[in-house]
Amino acid sequence: MSRTPHTQAIQSAHSNAWVVQTWLSWVLAVGVTSMGVWFLPVDGWMKAFLGMGMLFTVGSTFSLAKTVRDVHEQQRIVSRIDEARMTKLLAEVDPLSPKL
């Protein structure tokens, strides 16, 4: 079965450089923010509050990214199933196809 270019999106794998850059930027962002909170000239409970907020933000970001990815993959699967059903339906009613 051949696929037309507009119906099948091709997703290439991430390069190693991209993966390393992504992890380094994440580690740097969390590290620098943590250092900023640590060295703030405020009471310990304020630092704890800011640190807790940062941890919740990081955790929520991972959850959001996973949810967005899962929703996108689910829509892609449903789209492919609908495409397969339409192709089968069109093949069944195609007047130019040879009858067996």
From TrEMBL:
GO biological process: DNA damage response
InterPro entries the UniProt entry points to: YiaA-like, YiaAB
Pfam families: YiaAB
Assigned keywords, A-Z: Membrane, Transmembrane, Transmembrane helix
Coiled-coil annotated residue ranges, if any: none
Transmembrane helix listed as a keyword: yes
Domain YiaAB two helix: 18-70
Transmembrane parts of this sequence: 20-39, 45-65
A Gene Ontology term for the protein's cellular component: plasma membrane
Keyword DNA-binding listed: no
Protein name: YiaAB two helix domain-containing protein
The species this protein was found in: Hyalangium minutum
